[in-house]
Amino acid sequence: MAVVLDARDLNKHFGAITAAMNINVAIEQDSVVGLIGTNGAGKTTFINMITGYIKPDTGSIVYQGRDITALSPREITRAGICRSFQIPQLYASLSVFEHMMVGLGVVLRNAGLDGYFSRKRPNVPGHDAPAEEVAERILERFGLASYRDKNAQVLPGGVRKLLDIALTMVAKPTILLLDEPTSGVSAEEKFGIMDMVMSAVKAEGATVLFVEHDMEVVSRFAQRVIAFYDGRIIADAAPEIALTDPEVKRYVVGGALHRLDEQQGAANA
Amino acid sequence: MSRDRTLPILGAVLLAVVLAGPLLPQWALFLVTIAIAKGLVALGLMLLLRAGLVSFGQALYYCIGAYTAGSVGKFFHVGDMLMQMLAGAAAAALVAFILGFLLARYRGIFFGLLSLALSMILYGLLAKNEALGSTDGFNVLPSTVLGIRPTEAWVRYVVVAVGCGVALLATALVYRYLKTPLGQLAPAIKDNEIRVEYMGTSVRNAIHVLYVIAAALSGIGGALAATTVGHIDPDMAYWTTSGEFIFITILAGTGSVVAPFLGAAIFGIIHTVAFDLSPNTWQMSLGTVLLLVIVFLPDGLWSLFTRRKAA
User: Fold this and answer.
1) Helices in chain A by DSSP H: which ranges?
2) pTM of the model
């Protein structure tokens, strides 16, 4: 499969702290990649480097054959790499629907379709429908239609998470980076949210990288797992291999995988 | 969703003013014109406020508009009101475009005080400039409209009528702007700049555009004020003038493009009545009104209308 994103020899130090050391990752198109590691292992640094929020000390990031290392976050977003946030980044005074319209407005503006005097409602690039319809469609897909006119401030945690992710879909991303999509969400809700997100994202046809601490979620949704420890990648393989790697077990997974083993054992029995 | 009647309502009110104009006393016509001039400035401030920015120095552009209008009359003998307003708007927009590169980098108190500092620099420059009359300022040429000079008795009325027309046009343009994606971005910028950047657009650029629009509106307002008062002086750039504009904006609220004009009219009425009742303590009355508005109508007078609609 074609490589859509290629991170080469990324290094990043914050003073004496190594946030990334010799990171080499090639992401294949349409794959779903889980990024795991303890807090401070370098997962979010990796995401922040790809999205241009922080710049690597050395190394380069190539996206669809184009070097994007030096681009700003908004240029990278425009190029087709979008991200969601561990803590949902919403607009407190806007309704759910208005969130979508602001995002779609930016897409229209970037495409030069926000004509001041034009009374027509142009189709949003990549969606082939006017903004209002696209907004309704995305909300529907993420199960947010019933919250359409609710203010972001009053939304429950899981819904905030979904809205944060749904917002990334307005730009029709090629690559979607989800920073802990299920953190702060109750255990019962986790799989529901991931199912919803994954089916919505796959319907739009995006490559997904997600940071996740819950190994059950990782093993169920990821096709490939990259494990970080101390700024390095210690494993990069299919979930069943990566999650049983001794180093990963020792440094990353800890007790979580044992529970998973037990559950699988119980299910098999 | 019911049709938005904002513009027809404003149009009807302004038309009523124009029609009733010949019956109104001269002082009332003067008050209305000043209210329109200040309303235009407040409209610009409202745009900035929607993005979470408070300019403590909008008098900078009000003064630039006024001095440009006065100067094209004094030095180039252009007495046409519309040309003067156009020149005032253009000069204000040009200065804002240049200063915007600096100001769009700042937020909160830094944005506010930097804009205040710039307006006070202009005040200082004008107060020292003898060609422009130093602290005394200078008189503005009597106005003509499209080459026609109204008779003495009708000057005030013509100025009001032209002011109403310009205000309606400017408000319609702003109204349309607020419906564009860039216009709708302002509340999002106020709430969460990082997210706006991650959606793929430049916050700084959006603020720069807003800043220039606000300045152009203030420039028109300043030119209109210059025409109707017939005299300009550096006090138009003084910080208390900026304070008045903020007062009007807070009084009005950001609920509608019509609100700033309502706010400016009410400000004018309070100011006049308070000054009439007690010339030495009129500021106290203004202060009391502002206090009451902030406590009981934090979203401004306009929320009186929207509240009723919501109920």
Assistant:
1) 43-50, 73-79, 96-110, 131-141, 157-168, 187-204, 215-221, 239-242, 246-248, 255-268
2) 0.90
